[in-house]
Structures are given as structure tokens and as C-alpha cells.
Design goal:
Layout lengths: L6 E10 L5 E2 H6 L6 H8 L3 E2 L8 H16 L8 E5 L10 H9 L6 E5 L5 H15 L4 E9 L9 H4 L4 E11 L4 E8 L7 E2 L3 E3 L2 E3 L5 E2 L1 H22 L9 E4 L4 H11 L10 H4 L6 H11 L8 E8 L3 E8 L1
Parallel strand pairs: 4-5, 4-6, 13-14
Antiparallel strand pairs: 1-7, 2-3, 6-7, 8-15, 9-12, 10-11, 14-15
Helix pairs in contact: 3-4, 7-8
The chain binds oxa(dethia)-CoA.
């Protein structure tokens, strides 16, 4: 007997932002050599959230996951796969996914692992979970993007420290007879590793190399615009759909100018792009699920809408997913 075709579908979303919003003027008041108009003009960012010292990635992930589980009507014990995308894990090991599993009180042996694809991490995690579910090996996945990026910023480097923020977003992805995820694509090119990195590593009890984020902003900008449009076309092609059929695009929220340029290149009206970068800054792997959760909860994204996710980040990595919400 042939096995019925299984798809994966998002059944619940959740997100969490730590503390009160921190404005550009707040950063200037803290001694950053910048100003509100430069940051807004170059990036579109007005606010970001910064976690307290004692808060770790799995704490943020826990709050977002509890909200996603509640939205899906699922108990934590129903989850049989946890994928947590982060570049700011709680510790070298165990994975933040395993620590999240413990905080959720899951004792059913669910598989748990981190994905390290920087700002593309959620696109990677979602595509991996989709493949696990379609294979029949798992039925209920928690896919999370969570970051405390403020910990890896050099607060003396004004060109980078104003860009990022902390937060978490999560989805519950379940086996379904109906799609769900229609197409996904993942890519990387390690030859671009030098334009965005945190090169430090722990060795013999010391951090060797810089523990802070380093970036060639203009090189990242050009690369991001080029490949975001390409990977969007790739998933549309795979699903035999066209851009006019997309109801919403949720790009990684790095910079409003990258979002606008990508939408223009694709021929997608800006009204169809979900934008949170103004209030969240760049939350790396958390940015797509944070934006998704906002747009679902405020009623913009409705069941049946076609949504295009796309991420790009250090590595370089990039990826996209097209789905029917
Ligand atoms: O997830 C991917 C993460 N990364 C990104 O998305 C970043 C992509 N790149 C960008 O968004 C932009 O390249 C930036 C926003 C980072 C920078 O914008 P830019 O237009 O490429 O500026 P720039 O680096 O060429 O710097 C222009 C000027 C420089 O001054 P001079 O040399 O012209 O006098 C900088 O020193 O702006 C100065 N500058 C600042 N001024 C005030 C750099 N950072 C700041 C700042 N406030 N925070």
C-alpha cells in the first residue's frame, strides 16, 4: 500500500521581544557616536530591543515557543522535533535547542538541535523541518529563531552596533494532508565568509580572535539584494507560481533599503512586504518568525494566503520558502 502524501503546515506562531524598545536617541544618550537621522535614512531602524544581562537565547525562545504552541492548540509534549536557529547560543554545548526542550519540560525524547546559518537560520530551520515531516519521520516540529545579538556587538563600532536587536520567533509546523510549504531553497557560498563574521573562537580557556561582529556593510548590501531576488524566483519557479500570486513577502529584516530594492527587483508592491525592521532592528534568525507572528496576530496574514519568506546572512547563506499559510 502506498503511503499518503504528507505536507507540512504552520499551525501556530509566537514571538517575544525582551524589555522596552530602545530608540536611536537612547543609543546616542548611551554614548554611541551616531544620530537618529543617519540611522533612519540608511537603515529605516528607529527602535530595537536589548535583553538584560541575565537573559539567554533559550529564555527568549521559550516565550516565543509557548505562544506558538498555545496558538496551535498543542501541548509541549506533542512536539517531536525542535530546531532552533541561532548564532548566539547559550553556551558552546549543549545546543540551545536542547536547553529549550528542558525549559519546555519536554521529556518524550524529541530530537533537538541548533541550526547555524546566521540571518538565514529560520529559512534553513523551516526547510529542514519540512523535509523531516514530509519524510514521515516526525509530525510536530517547533522551529524557532532566537538571538541575543547585542552580546556579539562591538558597542564602539557605530557602523554595526546600531543595526541589531534581540528577540525570538517560533512556529509549530505539523504534518498535514494539505500544503503547507510549497517550495523551499537553501544555499551557501563560504567564499564570502570574510564580509560578515564573528571570527573569535574559544581555545585553551581563552577567546582567540575577535568575539565581535565584523561586517563590510556595502558588500553585504549588494550581495543581499542580488540573491534575495534570485532565491525568491527560484522557489516561485519550483512551485510553478508567479510573483503576482504572492500575497505577502517576509524578507529577513536587515535594512529597509534592502527590502525595498528586493521588492522592486521582483516587481512586488511594497504594500505586500511585511516590515518590522523599523521597530525591531535586525534580529538575525529571529527576524522572519517575529515578523510573521506580528502579521498573523494583527490579521494581515490570513489562512490560505501565499507567503514568501527569504533570508540572507553570514556564511554567506541564503534561502527561501514559499507557503500557503
Ligand atoms: O543580516 C545582514 C546584516 N547586514 C546588513 O544588512 C548590512 C547591509 N549594509 C547596510 O545596511 C549598509 O551598508 C550600512 C547601513 C551598514 C551602512 O550604510 P552605507 O550607506 O553603506 O554607509 P557607509 O558604511 O558607506 O558609511 C558612510 C558614512 C561613513 O562616514 P564617511 O567616511 O563618509 O565620513 C561612516 O563613518 O557613514 C558613517 N557612519 C555613521 N554615521 C553615523 C557609519 N555608521 C554610522 C552611524 N552613525 N551609525
Amino acid at each position: 500500500m502506498t503511503r499518503p502524501t504528507v505536507f507540512s503546515q504552520i499551525t501556530g506562531t509566537g514571538s517575544y521581544l525582551p524589555g522596552a524598545p530602545v530608540s536611536n536617541d537612547d543609543l546616542v544618550a548611551r554614548g554611541i557616536d551616531s544620530n537618529d537621522s543617519w540611522i533612519v535614512e540608511r537603515t529605516g531602524i528607529r527602535y530595537r530591543h536589548l535583553a538584560e544581562e541575565s537573559v539567554v537565547t533559550s529564555d527568549l525562545a521559550l516565550q516565543a515557543s509557548l505562544r506558538a504552541l498555545a496558538a496551535a492548540g498543542r501541548a509541549a509534549e506533542d512536539v517531536d522535533l525542535i530546531i532552533l536557529a541561532t548564532s548566539t547560543p547559550d553556551m558552546v554545548f549543549p545546543s540551545s535547542a536542547a536547553l529549550l526542550q528542558q525549559k519546555l519540560g519536554i521529556r518524550n525524547g524529541a530530537a533537538a538541535f541548533d541550526v547555524q546559518a546566521v540571518c538565514s537560520g529560520f529559512a534553513y530551520g523551516l526547510a529542514i523541518a519540512d523535509k523531516f515531516i514530509r519524510s514521515g519521520s516526525h509530525r510536530c516540529a517547533l522551529v524557532v529563531g532566537a538571538e541575543v545579538f547585542s552580546r556579539i556587538l562591538d558597542w564602539n563600532d557605530r557602523a554595526t552596533c546600531v543595526l541589531f536587536g534581540d528577540g525570538a520567533g517560533a512556529v509549530v509546523l505539523e504534518a498535514s494532508a494539505e500544503p503547507g510549504i510549497l517550495a523551499s531553497a537553501l544555499h551557501a557560498d563560504g567564499s564570502y565568509s570574510g564580509i560578515l563574521s564573528v571570527p573569535g573562537q574559544i581555545s585553551r580557556g581563552e577567546v582567540v580572535g575577535s568575539p565581535f561582529l565584523q561586517m563590510d556593510g556595502q558588500a553585504v548590501f549588494k550581495f543581499a539584494v542580488k540573491i534575495l531576488a534570485e532565491v525568491a524566483q527560484e522557489v516561485l519557479h519550483e512551485a510553478a507560481m508567479n510573483v503576482a500570486q504572492v500575497d505577502w513577502m517576509i524578507p529577513h529584516q536587515a535594512n529597509i533599503r534592502i527590502l525595498q530594492a528586493t521588492a522592486r527587483k521582483l516587481g512586488l508592491p511594497l504594500e505586500k512586504v511585511i516590515v518590522t525592521v523599523e521597530r525591531h532592528g535586525n534580529t538575525s534568525a529571529a527576524s522572519i518568525p517575529l515578523a510573521l507572528d506580528e502579521a498573523v496576530r494583527d490579521g494581515r496574514i490570513k489562512r490560505g494566503d501565499v507567503v514568501l519568506f527569504e533570508g540572507v546572512g553570514g556564511g554567506f547563506t541564503w534561502g527561501a520558502a514559499l507557503l500557503k499559510y
